[in-house]
C-alpha cells in the first residue's frame, strides 16, 4: 500500500504532519493506497517553488515552451494505458471511458502546443504622428487549479497545459479521492523537460483550498466541482483580488422531439445518462419528451436500462462501473427513494444491485423515472448518479421554458429531424453548451467549455481562446521614438489628432 504525498519543485514530498485519507477501490471495496491531506505548509512550499521558477519560465520563448509540451503529449500517448488504469483504479469508470477522457485531455495539450499563435498581440503604426501602438499578452504569474473526482486526468488538463504554455507556473490541487493520475501527469511533464517548480501538485481537501484562497502570491484560480464550493471559491477568491473561474454543477436536459429517430435517440440517451455511472457534469439526467413520443421512448429506454451490464471498470464487458464511494452510492439510492415518495413513476429500479464477488463495491443499477415534474427534488437537484428522469412536455416552447427555468445551465441537446426547430432551440436556450442530435456537446479543445447561470461563476470558460485570455493579462503599449522635435508639457488630456 503506497502513501501518496505531493509533487513540489520536481520532488515527491510528504506532509510533515498531516492526516491521511485511505483510498478505497470502488470496484472491490478494498483499501488501496493512502493519500496525504496537505494544508497551509504544503501550499506555502509549492508557492515558494513556483515563485522561484516563474522568472525563468515566463522568460522562456513560447516556442521553446511549446517544444516541451510536444514531448509531454508524446509521453501521455506512450503511457495512455497506465494512466487509464490509474483512473479506473481510483474512480471506477470503465477502462474504455477512462481512455476516452484521457484523450480529451490530450487534445488540450495539443491545443496548448499551438498557443504561441494565440499569444500574438495587435499592432498599429502611426496612431498619432510618429506614435505606434501595440498590445501584448503576458502571463498572470502563479496560478492554481482545484479539480473534482469525476475526471482525474481531463479536468486538470483543461487547466495546467494552457496556463503553463502561456508562461505561468501552476499549483494543482486534485480531488483527494483520485490523486494518482495528476501525480503521474506531473512526473511525465517533468520527464518531458519542464523545469522544476513550474507544475506542482499538492494533495488534500478543504485545508488546501483555503490555503490557496488565502495565499497573497496566487494570482489566478481555476476551479471545477460542485456549485456550492464553486460559489465559495469564486466569492472568496475574487474578494481577495484574484482572478477566478469556477465551474459548478449541472442538470442537463435532452429534448426529444416527436420526429426524432427513436432508436438513435434511445442509444444516445443511454450513453449520456448512464455512461460513467452518471458521474459527469455533462451527463444527461433529464429527458424532455415532447408530445406523444414519451410512451414509446420510455418503453425503449426501460428495455435498454434493464439490459445494461454493470460491473468492475476493468471488465471489458461492463457498460457501467461502480460509483465513486459507497457513501455516494447510498446518497444516489436515497434519491430514488425520494423520487418514489414524490410520486414519480419508477420504471426501472437500480437499488439493491449485488454483484457476486464484488459485494463490497459501490455498485448501483440504472434507474429510470417517468412522469417527473419540475417541483420534485429528483428534478431540481443534481443527483450525479445513474438516474434518468423523463419529463413530459406538450410543445418545444414549453420544453425550452422548462430548461431555462432551471438554476443550472451547463449542457443541453435536442434530437430532431427539423432544422428550424433545432435552430430555434439553439437560439433560445439559456445554456452554455448545446447539442443538435449530439447528446454530450463537450466542445473540442480549440473551443471553450463552460456553462451559464449557476454552472459557472466568472467571466471565462476553460480552454480554447477563453483559457488563453484567463491565463494572460493584456498590456497595451503606446510608443514614440525621439525624432528631434521639441516636446512641451501638455496640461490637457492628450489626443493623437
Ligand atoms: P466537490 O465540489 O465536492 O469537490 C471539488 C473540489 O473542491 C475538490 O478538489 C475538493 O477537494 C474541494 N472541496 C470539497 N469540499 C470543499 C470545501 N468545503 N471547501 C473547499 N474545497 C472543497 O465536487 P466533486 O464531488 O469532486 O465533483 C463532482 C461535482 O463537480 C459535480 O457537481 C459536477 O457537476 C461537478 N463538475 C463540474 C464540471 C463542469 O465543467 N462544470 C466538470 C466536472 C465536475
Would you write up a description of this structure?
This protein has 497 residues and is α/β, with parallel strands linked by helices. It folds into two domains: 3-248 and 455-477, Aldehyde Dehydrogenase, Chain A, domain 1 (3-Layer(aba) Sandwich), CATH 3.40.605.10; 252-436, Aldehyde Dehydrogenase, Chain A, domain 2 (3-Layer(aba) Sandwich), CATH 3.40.309.10. The protein is built from 16 helices and 23 strands. The protein has helices spanning 40-59, 62-78, 80-91, 95-113, 115-118, 154-165, 180-191, 206-214, 227-239, 262-274, 294-306, 326-342, 377-380, 396-405, 419-428, 464-470, and strands spanning 3-4, 6-8, 11-13, 19-24, 31-37, 123-128, 131-139, 142-146, 169-173, 199-201, 218-224, 243-247, 252-256, 284-290, 345-348, 367-370, 387-393, 408-409, 411-415, 433-436, 452-453, 456-457, 472-480. Strands 15-16-17-14-13-19-20 form a seven-stranded mixed sheet, sandwiched between helices. The longest helix has 20 residues, at 40-59. The termini are far apart. The mean pLDDT is 96. It binds nicotinamide-adenine-dinucleotide. Nicotinamide-adenine-dinucleotide (NAD) is lined by residues 146-151, 155, 173, 175-176, 205-206, 209, 224-226, 229, 247-250, 281, 382, 384, 410, 451, 455.
Give a summary of the structure in a few sentences.
The chain is an alpha/beta fold and 497 residues long. Helix content is 39%, strand content 23%.
Topology, pairings included?
Blueprint: E1 3-4, E2 6-8, E3 11-13, E4 19-24, E5 31-37, H1 40-59, H2 62-78, H3 80-91, H4 95-113, H5 115-118, E6 123-128, E7 131-139, E8 142-146, H6 154-165, E9 169-173, H7 180-191, E10 199-201, H8 206-214, E11 218-224, H9 227-239, E12 243-247, E13 252-256, H10 262-274, E14 284-290, H11 294-306, H12 326-342, E15 345-348, E16 367-370, H13 377-380, E17 387-393, H14 396-405, E18 408-409, E19 411-415, H15 419-428, E20 433-436, E21 452-453, E22 456-457, H16 464-470, E23 472-480
Parallel strand pairs: 1-5, 8-9, 8-11, 9-10, 11-12, 13-14, 13-19, 14-17, 16-17, 19-20
Antiparallel strand pairs: 2-3, 4-5, 6-7, 7-23, 12-22, 15-16, 18-21
Helix pairs in contact: 1-8, 2-4, 2-7, 3-4, 3-7, 4-6, 10-11
This protein binds nicotinamide-adenine-dinucleotide (NAD).
Residues 146-151, 155, 173, 175-176, 205-206, 209, 224-226, 229, 247-250, 281, 382, 384, 410, 451, 455 line the site of nicotinamide-adenine-dinucleotide.
Amino acid at each position: 500500500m503506497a502513501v501518496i504525498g505531493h509533487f513540489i519543485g520536481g520532488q515527491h514530498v510528504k506532509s510533515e504532519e498531516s492526516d491521511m485519507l485511505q483510498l478505497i477501490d470502488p470496484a472491490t471495496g478494498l483499501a488501496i493506497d493512502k493519500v496525504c491531506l496537505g494544508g497551509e505548509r504544503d501550499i506555502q512550499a509549492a508557492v515558494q517553488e513556483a515563485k522561484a521558477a516563474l522568472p525563468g519560465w515566463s522568460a522562456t520563448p513560447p516556442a521553446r515552451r511549446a517544444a516541451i509540451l510536444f514531448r509531454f503529449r508524446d509521453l501521455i500517448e506512450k503511457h495512455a494505458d497506465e494512466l487509464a488504469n490509474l483512473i479506473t483504479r481510483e474512480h471506477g469508470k470503465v477502462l474504455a471511458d477512462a481512455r476516452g477522457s484521457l484523450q480529451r485531455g490530450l487534445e488540450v495539450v495539443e491545443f496548448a502546443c499551438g498557443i504561441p499563435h494565440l499569444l500574438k498581440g495587435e499592432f498599429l503604426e502611426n496612431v498619432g504622428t510618429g506614435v505606434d501602438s501595440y498590445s501584448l499578452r503576458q502571463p498572470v504569474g502563479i496560478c492554481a487549479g482545484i479539480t473534482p473526482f469525476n475526471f482525474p486526468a481531463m479536468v486538470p488538463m483543461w487547466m495546467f497545459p494552457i496556463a503553463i504554455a502561456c508562461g505561468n507556473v501552476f499549483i494543482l490541487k486534485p480531488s483527494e479521492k483520485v490523486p494518482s493520475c495528476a501525480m503521474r501527469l506531473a512526473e511525465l511533464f517533468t520527464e518531458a523537460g519542464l523545469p522544476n517548480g513550474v507544475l506542482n501538485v499538492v494533495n488534500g481537501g478543504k485545508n488546501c483550498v483555503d490555503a490557496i484562497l488565502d495565499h497573497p502570491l496566487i494570482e489566478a484560480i481555476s476551479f471545477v466541482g460542485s456549485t456550492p464550493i464553486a460559489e465559495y471559491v469564486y466569492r472568496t477568491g475574487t474578494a481577495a483580488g484574484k482572478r477566478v473561474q469556477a465551474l459548478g454543477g449541472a442538470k442537463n436536459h435532452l429534448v426529444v422531439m416527436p420526429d426524432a429517430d427513436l432508436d438513435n435517440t434511445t442509444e444516445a440517451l443511454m450513453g449520456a445518462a448512464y455512461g460513467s455511472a452518471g458521474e459527469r457534469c455533462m451527463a444527461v439526467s433529464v429527458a424532455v419528451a415532447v408530445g406523444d413520443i414519451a410512451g414509446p421512448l420510455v418503453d425503449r429506454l426501460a428495455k435498454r436500462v434493464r439490459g445494461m451490464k454493470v460491473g468492475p471498470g476493468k471488465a471489458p464487458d461492463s457498460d457501467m462501473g461502480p460509483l465513486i464511494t459507497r457513501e455516494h452510492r447510498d446518497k444516489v439510492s436515497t434519491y430514488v427513494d425520494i423520487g418514489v415518495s414524490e410520486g414519480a413513476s419508477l420504471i426501472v429500479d437500480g437499488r439493491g444491485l449485488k454483484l457476486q464477488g464484488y459485494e463490497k463495491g459501490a455498485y448501483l443499477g440504472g434507474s429510470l423515472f417517468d412522469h417527473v415534474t419540475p417541483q420534485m427534488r429528483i428534478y431540481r437537484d443534481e443527483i450525479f448518479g445513474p438516474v434518468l428522469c423523463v419529463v413530459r412536455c406538450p410543445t418545444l416552447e414549453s420544453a425550452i421554458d422548462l430548461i431555462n427555468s432551471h438554476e443550472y445551465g451547463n449542457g443541453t441537446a435536442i434530437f430532431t429531424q427539423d432544422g428550424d426547430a433545432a435552430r430555434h432551440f439553439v437560439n433560445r436556450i439559456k445554456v452554455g453548451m448545446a447539442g443538435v442530435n449530439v447528446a454530450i456537446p463537450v466542445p473540442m479543445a480549440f473551443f471553450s467549455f463552460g456553462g451559464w447561470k449557476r454552472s459557472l461563476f466568472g467571466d471565462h470558460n476553460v480552454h480554447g481562446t477563453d483559457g488563453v485570455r484567463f491565463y494572460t493579462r493584456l498590456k497595451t503599449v503606446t510608443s514614440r521614438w525621439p525624432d528631434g522635435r521639441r516636446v512641451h508639457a501638455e496640461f490637457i488630456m492628450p489626443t493623437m489628432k
